[in-house]
Amino acid sequence: MAQRRFPDARRMALLVEEDPEIADDRHIVIEVDLAGVTPEEYVERDRQWGHELFQICPAPLICAFRLSLSIIDS
Fold first, then answer.
1. d(Cα 46, Cα 44) in Å, to the nearest integer?
2. Quick one: which of 5, 15, 23, 29 has the fewest CB in 10 Å?
């Protein structure tokens, strides 16, 4: 879904991140670097990703996923 949502990503990475404050709490982080994106586009693309995530993932599991969008120089 992330590849489909961000086909213009300069870099995409998937990692598991442990919560330093809560034992045995981990999150799946999708890191995406985008170039040439305005702040308005950033907000809209983040919103679209969240909307689609709710369409394909059961609500109790949503909190396991994190999106990390970075705007980079072109």
1. 5
2. 23
Tens-digit pLDDT profile for residues 19-50 = 889 999 999 999 999 998 999 999 999 999 99
**Residues 40 and 52 sit within 8 Å (Cβ to Cβ):** no
pTM assigned to the model: 0.85
Residue type, 40: E
Backbone φ, ψ for residue 38 (5° rounding):
-75, 160
SS3 track for 14-60: EEEEECCCCCCCEEEEEEEEEECCCHHHHHHHHHHHHHHHHHHCCHH
User: Where do we find the tokens 């970075």?
Assistant: 70
Buried residues in 42-73 as b, exposed as e (16+ CB within 10 A): eeebeeebeeebeeeeeeeeeeebebebeeee
